Structures are given as C-alpha cells and as structure tokens.
Amino acid sequence: MKRALLLGLMFLATSVAHAGSPSVAVEVHAEDGERIPAWVLEPEGKGTNPPVALLLHGLTRSKDDWLSDAEPTFGGALTEHLRSAGYRVYLMDARRHGARATPDAKPGALAKRAHAGEPGPYQAMISGTVRDAQVLLAKVLAHGKKPPKVLVAGYSMGAQVGLLLASREPRITHLVTMVPPHVDPVLGDAAPVNRMDHVHQSWLLLTANRDSFSTEEDNRKLFDAAPSKRKTRRTFDSGHALPREYLEAVRGWLSEAPRVP
After folding, report:
1. Does domain 2-256 have CATH number 3.40.50.1820?
2. For 73-108, how does the pLDDT look when each residue is reduced to its tens digit (9 = 90+)?
C-alpha cells in the first residue's frame, strides 16, 4: 500500500510552463458547499454539440499540469490535441490541490498518514474529489443534446479518481487512465479495485513495467476486473513517469474510438 499512497511525491517540485491560458473560469459548488474551481477550454471550430473531456491531475499536482509541456504529464500537448479534435476540455483541481490548497492542505502528508494507519483524511480527499467531478459533469451535461463522447482522462491519482468516477457515472463514454496506483482494498471507496465491476466504458489503460506504485499483477487484475466490452491496455518500459510517446497512444486510441449512438 505504501507505494500507492506515496505516488507523485517525486514530482512535487516539477515546474509548470503554461502552454496556454484557460478561456473561461467555471464556478461550481460541491454538495457540501465547497468551491470547485475549474477551467473550460473551447474547441477549435464551431461545432454545436462538441464532445466533452474532463482531465484529472495527480497527487500534489494541479489542473495547471494540463496546460504544461513539462513532466510528468506533458499535458499541454494532450489538451491542445483534444481542442483541435473538437473537444470542449474541462480542468479541475482535486480537493486540497491547486486553487483549493491551504497552508495545512498537505495532500502528500495525508497519503503518509493513511499508510501509518490513519486513512480517514486521505479517503475523504479522494472520495470528495470524485463527488466534485460528478457535480461538475452534471453541470456540463445538464443542458442541450448529449455530447457524442464524454471522455475522462487522468494521470496517477487522477487515474485513480477517473476509475472511481467512471464506476459511478454512466454518462461517461470513454475513459483513459495513465499509471493508476494500486490502492489497497482496505481504503474502501478510495480504492478502484473495489469498484471495477461497475466500469463499462470504452477504456484505455496505460501502465509502466517499472512503476513503483503498481505491479504487473496489480495492473492485470485491475484490467481484467472491468466488464467493459472495449478495453485496451498498453505497457511502457518506464517508471511511474511515462515517456512522452504515451501521448501518441492516447491520440491513436481516441481517433479509433467510436461515437456514441
């Protein structure tokens, strides 16, 4: 469990070089009243009913990662690809991260405390973020025609949140998870392994053969447990930080993904 709960700490000091600026700030409030700061980047072109993408960042990171060309996500390139492919892209901060951070937020410390036998605050951060993402998607999908695709993509902790979100939100049609950590089932609603039987979306799982936060057995069990009829797994020769070429795998998979009737 230690490797799963300490994911992403190695990337804490990585600089963020913005690839662009958000077009609109979206203000949404969670079920408990907490503010959910989010950005929306409009697609290129003038489609009347564009596909939607929600991108989720890793532990100790922020939504800024999806505007950056830096490690670990090289996320600016993915965001720009989605926009050029016609997606309306939403970025949000997890609880205790980014614009939601406070001096005592310390999300990495919560992971350490969970490993030490005090899982409550970490579980609350993850489950609260999942609920927040549901609220944001509900707002996005509340009006107009159903988008042809509703994509959720996440890196590391964002992949963890994405799996949990997909298991609870059937309006999501496509799911991309990059190096999700193995989270011990004892963490209940923060552990994707406990919810995989509810993941039916078209799914791309990207893993690494030298990932210190998830073993080959962990990844295989996670993949096999999902009843999705269209799922793909690709493994890279790397550690938890995937090489930049992972973006090509995502772009290729998305280009082949069918539209929703």
Report:
1. yes
2. 999 999 999 999 999 999 999 999 888 888 887 888
